């Protein structure tokens, strides 16, 4: 198809336009390793160069200059043309196709030109993923996060279940891939900081800020990712609601989440229980493990909730002032009540 695709004049689109909810399908042509570290939520990865090819092109560019690197890039590209064409033509056509690379440079320019030549209309993302990251960071700094309502409560009351049931809510733990507790990473894939922030930005653009926006109370970190400072400050200054539930229900929800719903993770959970000796002592931890091994999960989790989680977090809750307190024994009733919150 020729070696002049990098000279084509591609029609560009700004990040602010491309990330409008539901507006575009983003095709990310960076290497798989680049994409894994951070990408626009919902984007499709169709690498122009694989990780090894990108590495070698970088060395060639450094040692012999851009012309040699471009020539080698086309040698890598040409055998893939038919496969890439088939993949491009199979993409959904219900939204504009936006092609992105690292900085809105040669890789996205080549793929955009190639797409146009095979009859697939495409736009080039101006500034690439780097510009997208700048957009995210600027939004965190400039957004006023008005109308936040923060849900608090002891472990097992169902805060996340309520958040997931609400239409106008931000699920921080879902975006982080971590529940923010000792068992928080069990059965989940933790996100990188960049991917967490991308998912958060996507949701910030989706929710209706003229209404209450519900969010779960968290510390500055959820697992290994950090909340944007302005968001954390806004959460601390916003309206607070306390969710409660009887211990029996908290135990049942904890057991369902970690045992019933994902039995394949039982060995991992046992390892985490064994680490409690640092807080509960060796003798009490041995008793917990005995219950765990005998399948007496309610006894085990009941003790962990009251002797570990509650003691760890109750002092924080006791210092706070709450606008309302709600018993989550009936989750649907609480969700319905909050949906009408003003």
How is this structure best described in words?
This protein has 342 residues and is an alpha/beta fold. The chain folds into two domains: 5-137, Oxidized Rhodanese, domain 1 (3-Layer(aba) Sandwich); 145-339, Rossmann fold (3-Layer(aba) Sandwich). 52% of the residues lie in helices and 12% in strands. The chain contains 17 helices and twelve strands. It has helices spanning 15-18, 32-37, 51-64, 66-77, 81-89, 106-117, 128-142, 159-165, 172-176, 193-206, 229-237, 247-260, 266-274, 277-280, 282-293, 297-318, 331-339; strands at 12-13, 25-28, 44-45, 97-100, 123-125, 148-153, 169-170, 213-216, 221-222, 225-226, 239-244, 324-327. A five-stranded parallel beta sheet has the order 1-5-4-2-3. Strands 7-8-6-11-12 form a five-stranded parallel beta sheet. β4, α6 (106-117) and β5 (123-125) form a beta-alpha-beta unit. α3 runs antiparallel to α4 (66-77). The longest helix is centred in the C-terminal third of the chain and has 22 residues, at 297-318. The mean pLDDT is 94. Pfam families: AAA_SelU, Rhodanese. Residues 20-141 form the Rhodanese domain. One of its GO terms (biological process) is tRNA wobble uridine modification. One of its GO terms (molecular function) is tRNA 2-selenouridine synthase activity. It comes from Candidatus Lambdaproteobacteria bacterium RIFOXYD2_FULL_50_16.
């Amino acid at each position: 198809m020729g070696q002049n695709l990098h000279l084509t004049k591609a029609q560009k689109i700004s990040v602010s336009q491309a990330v409008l909810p539901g507006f575009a399908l983003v095709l990310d042509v960076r290497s798989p390793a680049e994409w894994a570290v951070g990408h626009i939520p919902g984007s499709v990865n169709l690498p122009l160069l694989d990780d090894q090819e990108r590495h070698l092109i970088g060395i060639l560019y450094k040692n012999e200059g851009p012309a040699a690197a471009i020539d080698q890039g086309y040698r890598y590209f040409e055998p893939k043309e038919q496969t890439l064409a088939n993949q491009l033509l199979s993409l959904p056509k219900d939204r504009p196709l936006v092609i992105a690379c690292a900085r809105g440079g040669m890789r996205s320019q080549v793929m955009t030109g190639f797409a146009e030549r095979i009859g697939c209309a495409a736009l080039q993302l101006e500034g690439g993923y780097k510009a997208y990251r700048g957009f995210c960071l600027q939004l965190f700094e400039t957004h006023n996060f008005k109308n936040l309502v923060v849900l608090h409560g002891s472990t097992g009351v169902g805060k996340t279940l309520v958040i997931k049931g609400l239409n106008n809510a931000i699920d921080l733990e879902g975006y982080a891939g971590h529940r923010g507790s000792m068992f928080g990473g069990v059965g989940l894939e933790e996100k990188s900081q960049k991917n967490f922030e991308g998912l958060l930005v996507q949701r910030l653009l989706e929710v209706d800020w003229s209404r209450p926006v519900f969010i779960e109370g968290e510390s500055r970190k959820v697992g290994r990712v950090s909340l944007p400072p302005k968001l954390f400050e806004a959460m601390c200054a916003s309206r607070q609601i306390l969710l409660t539930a009887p211990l029996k229900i908290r135990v049942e929800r904890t057991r369902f989440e970690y045992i019933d719903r994902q039995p394949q993770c039982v060995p991992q959970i046992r390892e985490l229980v064994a680490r409690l000796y640092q807080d509960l002592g060796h003798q009490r931890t041995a008793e917990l493990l005995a219950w765990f091994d005998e399948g007496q999960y309610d006894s085990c989790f009941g003790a962990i909730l009251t002797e570990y989680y509650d003691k760890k977090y109750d002092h924080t809750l006791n210092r706070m002032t709450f606008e309302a307190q709600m018993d989550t024994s009936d989750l649907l009733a609480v969700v319905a009540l909050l949906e009408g919150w003003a």
